[in-house]
């Protein structure tokens, strides 16, 4: 039974990776189209497109890591993605100081979690 579930998970992740690659290609096309055809360069929209591109890229890379790490998602990769996503959110949405402060606390919490993960022993009794 675990082998069947592992197979279903692997097939699902491969399908997800294919869909993400297609969407990444679409984002590249939209990004190039925006640069070539846009008369007025909206910096905020430009930043959002770059950030969305990197989110797709990170999730595809994470799926590749899953297969390279012998069917295992290391928790630290989720923390990396969370930290970088929050930093991107601060870059794009920094108009409200209270939200920016909350985002910074989220980043601090993720960094502390990463520190705790690195300090705890890998093998438990």
Radius of gyration: 18 Å
Q: Can you summarize the main beta sheet? A: none
Number of domains: 2
What order do the SSEs take from the amino end to the carboxyl end, as H and E?
HHHH
The proportion of residues forming helix, as a percent range, comes to over 70%
Number of strands: 0
Binned strand content: under 5%
Q: Return residue spans where pLDDT drops below 50 for at least 5 consecutive residues.
A: none
Structural class: mainly alpha
What would you call the shape? flat
Q: Report the average pLDDT across residues.
A: 86
N-end to C-end Cα span: 27 Å
Question: What topology emerges from the helices and strands here?
Answer:
Blueprint: H1 2-37, H2 43-68, H3 75-92, H4 97-119
């Amino acid at each position: 039974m675990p082998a069947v579930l592992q197979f279903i998970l692997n097939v699902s992740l491969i399908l997800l990776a294919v869909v993400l690659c297609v969407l990444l290609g679409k984002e590249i096309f939209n990004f190039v189209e925006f640069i070539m055809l846009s008369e007025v360069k909206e910096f905020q929209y430009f930043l959002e497109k770059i950030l969305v591109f990197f989110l797709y890229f990170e999730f595809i890379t994470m799926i590749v890591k899953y297969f390279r790490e012998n069917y295992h998602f290391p928790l630290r990769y989720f923390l990396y993605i969370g930290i970088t996503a929050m930093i991107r959110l601060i870059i794009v949405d920094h108009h409200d100081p209270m939200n920016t402060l909350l985002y910074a606390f989220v980043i601090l919490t993720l960094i502390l979690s990463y520190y705790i993960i690195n300090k705890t022993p890998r093998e438990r009794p």
